[in-house]
Amino acid sequence: MELRKYLFSGVKDQKWNFKIFSKQSGIFSGSAKLEKISDELKVEREKIYPEGYKIEAGDCVFSGRGEAEQVVKSEEMFLGTIGKFSGIATAASKFSQKAANNMKIVCGAFKKVPFEDRKDIRLSVVSGGIGTRITDSPFVYLDKNYVRILGCVESAVKKARRYDSSRIIVVQLRGEIEPIVQEAAGAVEAGAGILMVDTGSIDDLKSVAAALSKYKDPENIKIAYSGGVNLKDIEIIEECGADIVDVGRAIIDAPMLDFSLDVIK
């Protein structure tokens, strides 16, 4: 006989109430997935916190009822689900609160996680109060490989503009083919709308911002910044001229939020 069946043989027909408590404050995420798994386990669900809800330590985010095996399986499956997604949402919220109103925080790194997790992680990022797109307008994104294949930043932007002049052209600047200030100048003259300084270097950000200020209407061009950004970096990044900050691992790899599942007698 399988161990659990043996251990629970004397209480097979009984049902137990259980609750999941948050052990930390943060943003609750993973509600839909938790609901789906509880349905699969046939747990009698009584309460579940909504997606994106702000929680405090000690809050009961879920309550349900099930047989002994359902309860222990719930502990195995529920906590990891809401723990990871709530950790991501909480980290996103901290970045959102840290940034001033005139700087946009986004997280596009959800595209680098396994495909089956992308939808849920994207939802967690949004639940934390930040976006996943560098701009809400239609755009064309030219990353480093497009630039390498098409020869240089200016050539890549010009070709994208010929394809659809109505879209904002976003181009990644890395200073690989030309110095990054020259790449920025070429991008602006070719019609780029957002310059993504993706070197992780504050000096590069300063240089691009200074170069951009020399143009007639610099406010029409946005500067984005990315590369190993942490929470402590946000203020200095804004001071150095960034309009948009793309945060990656500091959000996607955020620690799990701690939850506990307890049988309630």
UniProtKB/TrEMBL annotation:
Species: Clostridium lapidicellarium
Catalytic reactions on record: nicotinate beta-D-ribonucleotide + CO2 + diphosphate = quinolinate + 5-phospho-alpha-D-ribose 1-diphosphate + 2 H(+)
The entry's keywords: Glycosyltransferase, Transferase
Domain Quinolinate phosphoribosyl transferase N-terminal intervals: 10-86
Assigned protein family: Belongs to the NadC/ModD family.
Residue ranges constituting the Quinolinate phosphoribosyl transferase C-terminal domain according to the UniProt record: 88-262
Protein name, per record: Nicotinate-nucleotide pyrophosphorylase
Any one Pfam family match given in the protein's UniProt record, by short name: QRPTase_N
